[in-house]
Amino acid sequence: MTARRGGLGRGLGALIPTGTEGVGGISTSIDDGFGLPVGPAPVHGATFREVPVDSVTPNPRQPRTHFDEDALEELAASLREVGLLQPIVVREIMPGRYELVMGERRWRASRLAGFSQIPAIVRDTADDAMLRDALLENLHRQQLNPLEEAAAYEQLLRDFGATHEELAGKLGRSRSHVTNMIRLLGLPPAVQRRVAAGVLSAGHARALLSLEDPDAQDRLATRIVAEGLSVRAVEEIVALGEEGPRRTPPHRPRVTSPALHKLASRLSDQFDTRVKVDMGRNKGKITVEFASIEDLERIVAVMTASGAVSSSSSSG
């Protein structure tokens, strides 16, 4: 098998001390010389390590028995490009042998990708809530790159049953921040690598998400690096439609004005999401972006409370 390519970050792995001697392998914290903690605090009942892919066996009590082969191939191709950001969760059943607790799809795709090692959280406790809360606490303490942060959010939501509200509350962030960070994982691999390397900021990445075409996202990312564009400049480029799929321009050019931009900005602040206002020759439209059904329900609730949407029609 080929060696595993380095990923863009370790996600939850960056929140757990590494160790090779059983659970809780690191029990002392490291400080920066001024009494301030550096690195993750010890997580009771868990360590992070790289384990051989072939040393892991599936959980025989796994309720999911069917895995779509095409979807696994797609995930394997993605892993070859960017590595595995979300470690699997295992328990050690004997020295050097592990049983899967969470992440069988990631483990299967890693085998298809030809990885010899896989990042894993090795846990000893059966209390999912305890481990989840410890990870949330460390996530609050750690300075992660945007891709590590996004991967940690997604894995906590998927594997440990955390909610958007729990993540936002623990971190002192808005729910839309959590949602928008997770969306970064949908960027093309080349753009993700620039974000992980610090060449593009999280603000640049969020602005790129407004482009639906991956090629357009990659082109604009290249421009950001080459021209040193600010986040605001990127947002204006996207809003004006200056970077998009290469196709025949529409017959009727889009009409833009400072007033429309100001209105869109005001609505974005009110609804805590990106809002675009477009005006054609004969009609206009308002586009409100949302990341999930839960996020849509939140936006509708804000609209209803502000009077933007009426819950019942009035009789005439």
For this entry, give a set of tags.
Conserved hypothetical protein from pyrococcus furiosus pfu- 392566-001, ParB domain, five-stranded mixed β-sheet, 9 strands, 316 residues
What does this structure look like?
The chain is α/β, with parallel strands linked by helices. The chain is built from 12 helices and 9 strands. Strands 3-7-5-6-4 form a 5-stranded mixed sheet, covered by helices on one side. A two-stranded antiparallel sheet has the order 1-2. Strands 8-9 form a two-stranded antiparallel ribbon.
Biggest sheet, open or closed, and with what strands and sense? 5 strands, mixed
Radius of gyration: 23 Å
Strand content: 5-15%
Strand arrangement in the largest pleated sheet? 3-7-5-6-4
Tell me which CATH architecture of the largest domain applies here. Answer: Alpha-Beta Complex
- Helix-strand pattern, N to C? EEEEHEEHEHHHHHHHHHEEH
| CATH domain fold name of the largest domain | Conserved hypothetical protein from pyrococcus furiosus pfu- 392566-001, ParB domain
Instruction: Indicate the percent of residues in helices.
Output: 40-55%
Count the beta strands. Answer: 9
What is the arithmetic mean of pLDDT?
77
CATH class designation of the largest domain: Alpha Beta
Q: Assign an overall shape.
A: globular
Structural class given helices, strands, pairing?
A: alpha/beta
> What is the end-to-end distance?
73 Å
Unreliable sequence segments = 1-6, 20-37, 245-251, 309-316
